[in-house]
Amino acid sequence: MARVVVTGMGVISPLGNDWTTALLQLKQYRNCVCRYDDWAIYKGLNTRLGVPAAPFELPAHYHRKSMRSMGRVALMATRASELALADAGLLDDPVLKSGLVGIAYGSSAGSPSSVAAFGQMMVDKDTQPINANTYIKMMSHTAAVNIGVFFGITGRVITTSSACTSGSQGIGYAYEAIKAGHQIAMLAGGSEELDFTSAAVFDTLFATSVRNETPELTPRPFDRTRDGLVVGEGAGTLLLESLNHARARGANIHAEVLGFGTNSDGTHVTQPNAETMAIAMRLALRDAGMNPRDIGYINAHGTATDHGDIAETTATQTVFGTQTPISSLKSYTGHTLGACGALEAWASINMMREGWFAPTINLDEVDKRCGNLDYIVGAGRKLETDVVMSNNFAFGGINTSLIFRRWLE
Description:
Blueprint: E1 4-12, H1 19-27, E2 34-35, E3 49-51, H2 64-67, H3 72-88, E4 101-106, H4 112-124, H5 134-138, H6 142-151, E5 157-159, H7 166-179, E6 185-192, H8 196-203, E7 231-232, E8 234-242, H9 243-248, E9 255-264, H10 274-288, E10 297-299, H11 306-320, E11 325-327, H12 330-333, H13 340-354, E12 356-357, E13 374-375, E14 381-382, E15 387-394, E16 398-406
Parallel strand pairs: 3-7, 4-5, 4-6, 10-11, 10-15, 11-13
Antiparallel strand pairs: 1-8, 1-9, 2-3, 6-8, 9-16, 12-14, 15-16
Helix pairs in contact: 3-6, 7-13, 10-11
Protein backbone atom coordinates (compact mmCIF):
# COMPACT_ATOMS: atom_id res chain seq x y z
CA MET A 1 0.00 0.00 0.00
CA ALA A 2 1.28 3.46 -0.92
CA ARG A 3 1.76 6.15 1.69
CA VAL A 4 -0.25 9.29 0.85
CA VAL A 5 0.87 12.86 1.45
CA VAL A 6 -0.53 16.35 0.98
CA THR A 7 1.63 18.36 -1.41
CA GLY A 8 -0.75 21.17 -2.34
CA MET A 9 -3.54 23.14 -0.71
CA GLY A 10 -5.81 25.85 -2.07
CA VAL A 11 -8.91 27.51 -0.65
CA ILE A 12 -11.58 30.11 -1.19
CA SER A 13 -12.66 30.67 2.40
CA PRO A 14 -14.63 33.07 4.61
CA LEU A 15 -11.42 33.43 6.63
CA GLY A 16 -9.38 34.45 3.58
CA ASN A 17 -7.79 32.66 0.66
CA ASP A 18 -4.38 31.95 2.16
CA TRP A 19 -3.22 30.75 5.57
CA THR A 20 -1.56 34.02 6.60
CA THR A 21 -4.83 35.91 6.18
CA ALA A 22 -6.88 33.15 7.78
CA LEU A 23 -4.62 32.92 10.82
CA LEU A 24 -4.90 36.67 11.38
CA GLN A 25 -8.69 36.40 11.23
CA LEU A 26 -8.73 33.48 13.67
CA LYS A 27 -6.54 35.36 16.13
CA GLN A 28 -9.00 38.25 16.17
CA TYR A 29 -11.59 35.85 17.65
CA ARG A 30 -14.36 37.32 15.50
CA ASN A 31 -16.66 35.45 13.19
CA CYS A 32 -17.39 36.23 9.54
CA VAL A 33 -21.20 36.18 9.78
CA CYS A 34 -23.21 38.75 7.82
CA ARG A 35 -26.85 39.75 7.89
CA TYR A 36 -28.75 39.49 4.58
CA ASP A 37 -31.75 41.79 4.77
CA ASP A 38 -32.76 40.91 1.20
CA TRP A 39 -33.73 37.43 2.45
CA ALA A 40 -36.71 39.08 4.18
CA ILE A 41 -38.71 38.85 0.94
CA TYR A 42 -39.06 35.09 1.44
CA LYS A 43 -42.13 34.49 3.55
CA GLY A 44 -41.53 32.01 6.34
CA LEU A 45 -37.72 32.23 6.23
CA ASN A 46 -36.68 33.13 9.76
CA THR A 47 -32.91 33.45 9.53
CA ARG A 48 -31.17 36.39 7.86
CA LEU A 49 -27.64 35.15 8.53
CA GLY A 50 -24.97 33.79 6.19
CA VAL A 51 -21.21 33.74 5.74
CA PRO A 52 -19.75 34.75 2.36
CA ALA A 53 -16.38 33.63 1.08
CA ALA A 54 -13.67 36.26 1.03
CA PRO A 55 -13.40 38.11 -2.31
CA PHE A 56 -11.10 36.42 -4.79
CA GLU A 57 -9.54 37.49 -8.07
CA LEU A 58 -9.50 35.45 -11.26
CA PRO A 59 -6.59 35.42 -13.73
CA ALA A 60 -7.19 36.34 -17.36
CA HIS A 61 -7.62 32.74 -18.49
CA TYR A 62 -10.92 32.68 -16.60
CA HIS A 63 -12.95 34.11 -19.44
CA ARG A 64 -16.44 33.65 -20.85
CA LYS A 65 -15.60 30.52 -22.82
CA SER A 66 -13.68 28.77 -20.05
CA MET A 67 -16.38 29.56 -17.47
CA ARG A 68 -19.50 29.00 -19.53
CA SER A 69 -20.32 25.72 -17.79
CA MET A 70 -19.54 27.02 -14.28
CA GLY A 71 -21.86 28.35 -11.66
CA ARG A 72 -20.29 29.90 -8.57
CA VAL A 73 -19.92 26.53 -6.80
CA ALA A 74 -17.85 25.14 -9.69
CA LEU A 75 -15.91 28.37 -10.16
CA MET A 76 -14.75 28.42 -6.53
CA ALA A 77 -13.85 24.73 -6.74
CA THR A 78 -11.82 25.26 -9.90
CA ARG A 79 -9.95 28.27 -8.55
CA ALA A 80 -9.19 26.52 -5.24
CA SER A 81 -7.91 23.54 -7.22
CA GLU A 82 -5.71 25.79 -9.34
CA LEU A 83 -4.20 27.24 -6.18
CA ALA A 84 -3.59 23.72 -4.87
CA LEU A 85 -1.92 22.64 -8.12
CA ALA A 86 0.28 25.73 -8.08
CA ASP A 87 1.19 25.08 -4.44
CA ALA A 88 2.13 21.50 -5.36
CA GLY A 89 4.18 22.58 -8.37
CA LEU A 90 1.97 20.58 -10.72
CA LEU A 91 0.08 23.33 -12.53
CA ASP A 92 0.37 22.67 -16.30
CA ASP A 93 2.43 19.54 -15.62
CA PRO A 94 1.94 16.83 -18.30
CA VAL A 95 1.12 14.30 -15.56
CA LEU A 96 -2.34 15.86 -15.27
CA LYS A 97 -3.27 14.42 -18.66
CA SER A 98 -1.57 11.06 -18.14
CA GLY A 99 -4.55 9.28 -16.62
CA LEU A 100 -2.59 8.88 -13.38
CA VAL A 101 -4.14 11.93 -11.73
CA GLY A 102 -7.81 11.99 -10.74
CA ILE A 103 -10.43 14.01 -8.90
CA ALA A 104 -12.52 13.26 -5.81
CA TYR A 105 -14.72 16.26 -5.17
CA GLY A 106 -18.21 17.15 -4.05
CA SER A 107 -20.85 19.68 -3.11
CA SER A 108 -24.31 19.40 -1.65
CA ALA A 109 -25.75 20.40 -5.01
CA GLY A 110 -25.03 22.49 -8.06
CA SER A 111 -25.74 26.20 -8.38
CA PRO A 112 -29.22 27.05 -7.04
CA SER A 113 -29.88 29.63 -9.77
CA SER A 114 -29.68 26.88 -12.37
CA VAL A 115 -32.03 24.69 -10.34
CA ALA A 116 -34.39 27.67 -10.25
CA ALA A 117 -34.24 27.97 -14.04
CA PHE A 118 -35.53 24.43 -14.44
CA GLY A 119 -38.17 25.12 -11.81
CA GLN A 120 -39.29 28.18 -13.76
CA MET A 121 -39.52 26.05 -16.89
CA MET A 122 -41.81 23.62 -15.06
CA VAL A 123 -44.03 26.44 -13.80
CA ASP A 124 -44.23 28.36 -17.10
CA LYS A 125 -44.21 25.29 -19.38
CA ASP A 126 -41.54 27.11 -21.37
CA THR A 127 -37.86 26.24 -21.96
CA GLN A 128 -36.86 29.90 -22.28
CA PRO A 129 -35.13 30.05 -18.83
CA ILE A 130 -32.67 27.23 -19.66
CA ASN A 131 -29.81 26.86 -22.11
CA ALA A 132 -27.16 24.30 -23.03
CA ASN A 133 -25.18 24.92 -19.82
CA THR A 134 -27.99 25.19 -17.27
CA TYR A 135 -27.92 21.51 -16.36
CA ILE A 136 -24.10 21.44 -16.24
CA LYS A 137 -24.23 24.20 -13.62
CA MET A 138 -27.03 22.46 -11.72
CA MET A 139 -25.82 18.86 -11.58
CA SER A 140 -24.46 17.54 -8.31
CA HIS A 141 -21.07 16.70 -9.84
CA THR A 142 -20.61 20.09 -11.49
CA ALA A 143 -17.53 20.94 -9.40
CA ALA A 144 -15.69 17.72 -10.17
CA VAL A 145 -16.32 17.71 -13.93
CA ASN A 146 -15.53 21.40 -14.36
CA ILE A 147 -12.23 20.92 -12.55
CA GLY A 148 -11.45 18.03 -14.87
CA VAL A 149 -12.25 19.93 -18.04
CA PHE A 150 -10.47 23.11 -16.97
CA PHE A 151 -7.18 21.31 -16.27
CA GLY A 152 -7.53 18.47 -18.79
CA ILE A 153 -7.39 15.80 -16.09
CA THR A 154 -8.01 12.32 -17.49
CA GLY A 155 -7.85 10.05 -14.44
CA ARG A 156 -10.78 8.73 -12.45
CA VAL A 157 -13.48 11.08 -11.16
CA ILE A 158 -15.17 10.30 -7.85
CA THR A 159 -18.09 12.59 -7.09
CA THR A 160 -19.01 12.98 -3.44
CA SER A 161 -22.32 14.79 -3.25
CA SER A 162 -22.93 13.88 0.37
CA ALA A 163 -23.97 17.16 1.96
CA CYS A 164 -21.73 18.11 4.90
CA THR A 165 -19.30 15.23 4.27
CA SER A 166 -18.78 16.01 0.58
CA GLY A 167 -15.33 17.54 1.16
CA SER A 168 -14.12 15.00 3.71
CA GLN A 169 -15.33 12.03 1.69
CA GLY A 170 -13.56 13.55 -1.31
CA ILE A 171 -10.29 13.59 0.63
CA GLY A 172 -10.89 10.13 2.06
CA TYR A 173 -11.73 8.47 -1.24
CA ALA A 174 -8.79 10.18 -2.94
CA TYR A 175 -6.52 8.85 -0.19
CA GLU A 176 -7.88 5.33 -0.70
CA ALA A 177 -7.47 5.52 -4.49
CA ILE A 178 -3.80 6.50 -4.17
CA LYS A 179 -3.13 4.10 -1.31
CA ALA A 180 -4.45 1.21 -3.42
CA GLY A 181 -2.31 2.24 -6.39
CA HIS A 182 -5.11 3.28 -8.72
CA GLN A 183 -3.77 6.85 -9.09
CA ILE A 184 -0.54 8.63 -8.21
CA ALA A 185 -2.25 11.93 -7.32
CA MET A 186 -5.76 13.29 -6.78
CA LEU A 187 -7.36 16.69 -6.43
CA ALA A 188 -9.70 16.28 -3.47
CA GLY A 189 -12.16 18.44 -1.59
CA GLY A 190 -15.48 20.20 -1.74
CA SER A 191 -17.28 23.42 -2.57
CA GLU A 192 -20.53 25.20 -1.77
CA GLU A 193 -22.05 28.54 -2.70
CA LEU A 194 -24.09 30.67 -0.33
CA ASP A 195 -27.77 30.93 -1.19
CA PHE A 196 -30.99 31.54 0.69
CA THR A 197 -32.19 28.09 -0.37
CA SER A 198 -29.46 26.47 1.74
CA ALA A 199 -30.63 28.50 4.72
CA ALA A 200 -34.22 27.47 4.00
CA VAL A 201 -33.32 23.76 4.12
CA PHE A 202 -32.23 24.07 7.73
CA ASP A 203 -34.75 26.76 8.61
CA THR A 204 -37.63 24.39 7.94
CA LEU A 205 -36.02 22.00 10.45
CA PHE A 206 -35.74 24.82 13.04
CA ALA A 207 -31.97 24.34 12.85
CA THR A 208 -30.81 27.82 11.81
CA SER A 209 -29.74 30.59 14.14
CA VAL A 210 -32.15 33.49 14.27
CA ARG A 211 -29.92 35.89 16.20
CA ASN A 212 -30.42 38.26 13.30
CA GLU A 213 -29.74 41.38 15.38
CA THR A 214 -26.43 40.09 16.75
CA PRO A 215 -24.62 38.18 13.99
CA GLU A 216 -21.35 38.49 15.87
CA LEU A 217 -22.72 36.23 18.62
CA THR A 218 -23.63 33.23 16.50
CA PRO A 219 -23.20 30.37 15.74
CA ARG A 220 -22.38 29.06 19.22
CA PRO A 221 -21.21 25.44 18.93
CA PHE A 222 -21.65 23.42 22.13
CA ASP A 223 -22.94 26.43 24.05
CA ARG A 224 -25.97 26.13 26.30
CA THR A 225 -27.66 29.04 24.50
CA ARG A 226 -26.91 27.96 20.93
CA ASP A 227 -29.89 28.28 18.62
CA GLY A 228 -28.70 26.70 15.37
CA LEU A 229 -26.27 26.91 12.49
CA VAL A 230 -25.40 29.66 10.03
CA VAL A 231 -24.83 28.65 6.40
CA GLY A 232 -21.64 29.69 4.64
CA GLU A 233 -19.73 29.16 1.42
CA GLY A 234 -16.29 28.40 0.09
CA ALA A 235 -14.14 25.76 -1.54
CA GLY A 236 -11.16 23.75 -0.40
CA THR A 237 -8.82 21.51 -2.38
CA LEU A 238 -5.98 19.27 -1.21
CA LEU A 239 -3.59 17.76 -3.73
CA LEU A 240 -2.91 14.25 -2.45
CA GLU A 241 0.00 12.31 -3.88
CA SER A 242 1.78 9.02 -3.35
CA LEU A 243 4.87 9.52 -1.22
CA ASN A 244 7.09 7.84 -3.81
CA HIS A 245 5.92 10.17 -6.58
CA ALA A 246 6.22 13.24 -4.35
CA ARG A 247 9.77 12.30 -3.34
CA ALA A 248 10.80 11.52 -6.90
CA ARG A 249 9.94 15.02 -8.04
CA GLY A 250 11.22 16.76 -4.91
CA ALA A 251 7.81 18.04 -3.82
CA ASN A 252 7.24 20.07 -0.69
CA ILE A 253 5.13 17.97 1.67
CA HIS A 254 2.63 19.60 4.04
CA ALA A 255 1.36 16.52 5.89
CA GLU A 256 0.66 12.81 5.58
CA VAL A 257 -2.83 11.33 5.46
CA LEU A 258 -2.76 8.49 7.97
CA GLY A 259 -6.33 7.34 8.28
CA PHE A 260 -9.88 7.61 7.02
CA GLY A 261 -13.10 6.22 8.38
CA THR A 262 -16.60 6.57 6.99
CA ASN A 263 -19.92 4.86 7.62
CA SER A 264 -23.63 5.56 7.85
CA ASP A 265 -26.11 5.62 10.73
CA GLY A 266 -28.73 3.56 8.97
CA THR A 267 -31.40 4.87 11.32
CA HIS A 268 -32.67 8.36 10.44
CA VAL A 269 -32.06 10.91 7.70
CA THR A 270 -31.67 13.96 9.96
CA GLN A 271 -31.26 12.66 13.53
CA PRO A 272 -27.56 11.97 14.32
CA ASN A 273 -26.44 8.74 15.94
CA ALA A 274 -23.62 8.96 18.49
CA GLU A 275 -22.85 5.24 18.29
CA THR A 276 -22.06 5.21 14.57
CA MET A 277 -20.21 8.53 14.84
CA ALA A 278 -17.91 6.87 17.36
CA ILE A 279 -17.45 3.89 15.04
CA ALA A 280 -16.33 6.23 12.21
CA MET A 281 -13.64 7.70 14.47
CA ARG A 282 -12.49 4.23 15.49
CA LEU A 283 -12.34 3.19 11.84
CA ALA A 284 -9.99 6.10 11.12
CA LEU A 285 -7.85 5.22 14.13
CA ARG A 286 -7.67 1.58 13.03
CA ASP A 287 -6.75 2.60 9.49
CA ALA A 288 -3.98 4.80 10.87
CA GLY A 289 -2.78 2.11 13.29
CA MET A 290 -3.21 4.53 16.17
CA ASN A 291 -4.76 4.74 19.61
CA PRO A 292 -6.96 7.64 20.81
CA ARG A 293 -4.11 8.95 22.97
CA ASP A 294 -2.02 9.48 19.82
CA ILE A 295 -4.36 12.25 18.60
CA GLY A 296 -3.31 15.69 19.84
CA TYR A 297 -6.28 17.73 18.59
CA ILE A 298 -9.75 17.12 17.18
CA ASN A 299 -11.38 19.50 14.73
CA ALA A 300 -15.06 19.05 15.52
CA HIS A 301 -17.94 19.22 13.07
CA GLY A 302 -19.58 21.49 15.67
CA THR A 303 -22.53 22.99 13.79
CA ALA A 304 -24.29 24.53 16.84
CA THR A 305 -27.43 22.48 16.29
CA ASP A 306 -29.12 21.04 19.36
CA HIS A 307 -29.00 17.29 18.70
CA GLY A 308 -25.92 17.37 16.47
CA ASP A 309 -23.62 18.89 19.08
CA ILE A 310 -24.82 16.49 21.76
CA ALA A 311 -24.42 13.38 19.62
CA GLU A 312 -20.99 14.40 18.31
CA THR A 313 -19.50 15.30 21.67
CA THR A 314 -20.95 12.22 23.34
CA ALA A 315 -19.42 10.07 20.62
CA THR A 316 -16.09 11.87 20.95
CA GLN A 317 -16.00 11.31 24.71
CA THR A 318 -16.80 7.63 24.18
CA VAL A 319 -13.72 7.25 21.97
CA PHE A 320 -11.27 9.71 23.49
CA GLY A 321 -12.34 10.30 27.04
CA THR A 322 -12.04 13.83 28.37
CA GLN A 323 -8.46 14.89 27.68
CA THR A 324 -8.11 15.59 23.92
CA PRO A 325 -8.34 19.29 22.93
CA ILE A 326 -11.23 20.03 20.58
CA SER A 327 -12.72 23.08 18.84
CA SER A 328 -15.11 24.00 16.03
CA LEU A 329 -14.09 26.38 13.26
CA LYS A 330 -17.73 26.78 12.25
CA SER A 331 -17.95 29.34 15.04
CA TYR A 332 -15.97 31.57 12.63
CA THR A 333 -16.99 30.41 9.16
CA GLY A 334 -20.51 29.14 9.67
CA HIS A 335 -21.40 25.83 8.07
CA THR A 336 -19.91 25.74 4.59
CA LEU A 337 -21.73 22.45 3.91
CA GLY A 338 -20.01 20.57 1.07
CA ALA A 339 -16.83 22.59 1.55
CA CYS A 340 -16.45 22.26 5.31
CA GLY A 341 -14.58 18.95 5.37
CA ALA A 342 -11.89 20.28 3.03
CA LEU A 343 -11.63 23.72 4.62
CA GLU A 344 -11.39 22.22 8.11
CA ALA A 345 -8.76 19.70 6.98
CA TRP A 346 -6.74 22.59 5.50
CA ALA A 347 -7.03 24.60 8.71
CA SER A 348 -6.24 21.59 10.93
CA ILE A 349 -3.05 20.84 9.00
CA ASN A 350 -1.97 24.47 9.16
CA MET A 351 -2.79 24.84 12.86
CA MET A 352 -0.74 21.69 13.55
CA ARG A 353 2.19 23.14 11.64
CA GLU A 354 1.70 26.48 13.42
CA GLY A 355 1.58 24.89 16.89
CA TRP A 356 -1.49 27.02 17.66
CA PHE A 357 -5.12 25.96 17.65
CA ALA A 358 -8.09 28.30 17.42
CA PRO A 359 -10.77 28.18 20.11
CA THR A 360 -14.49 27.81 19.60
CA ILE A 361 -15.67 31.40 19.86
CA ASN A 362 -19.02 32.29 21.45
CA LEU A 363 -18.70 29.22 23.67
CA ASP A 364 -19.44 30.78 27.05
CA GLU A 365 -21.07 27.87 28.87
CA VAL A 366 -20.89 24.29 27.62
CA ASP A 367 -24.27 22.61 27.42
CA LYS A 368 -24.40 20.03 30.23
CA ARG A 369 -25.93 17.56 27.76
CA CYS A 370 -22.75 17.69 25.63
CA GLY A 371 -19.82 15.41 26.27
CA ASN A 372 -17.23 16.21 28.93
CA LEU A 373 -14.36 17.27 26.69
CA ASP A 374 -11.33 19.56 26.68
CA TYR A 375 -13.02 22.39 24.76
CA ILE A 376 -10.58 25.08 23.62
CA VAL A 377 -12.23 28.37 24.62
CA GLY A 378 -11.17 31.97 25.16
CA ALA A 379 -7.73 32.43 23.60
CA GLY A 380 -6.17 30.01 21.17
CA ARG A 381 -4.03 27.26 22.59
CA LYS A 382 -0.39 26.50 21.86
CA LEU A 383 -0.02 22.77 21.31
CA GLU A 384 2.84 20.71 20.00
CA THR A 385 1.30 17.68 18.36
CA ASP A 386 2.18 15.60 15.34
CA VAL A 387 -1.26 14.14 14.69
CA VAL A 388 -4.73 15.70 14.33
CA MET A 389 -8.20 14.39 13.52
CA SER A 390 -10.93 16.20 11.57
CA ASN A 391 -14.53 14.93 11.80
CA ASN A 392 -17.68 15.64 9.79
CA PHE A 393 -21.24 14.34 10.00
CA ALA A 394 -23.92 14.84 7.35
CA PHE A 395 -27.61 14.57 6.58
CA GLY A 396 -28.42 11.00 5.67
CA GLY A 397 -26.35 9.81 8.61
CA ILE A 398 -23.04 9.88 6.74
CA ASN A 399 -20.03 10.11 9.06
CA THR A 400 -16.36 10.77 8.26
CA SER A 401 -13.13 10.97 10.19
CA LEU A 402 -9.72 11.94 8.78
CA ILE A 403 -6.33 11.73 10.48
CA PHE A 404 -3.33 13.81 9.39
CA ARG A 405 0.27 13.68 10.61
CA ARG A 406 2.88 16.39 10.54
CA TRP A 407 5.51 15.63 7.91
CA LEU A 408 8.62 14.68 9.85
CA GLU A 409 10.88 13.08 7.25
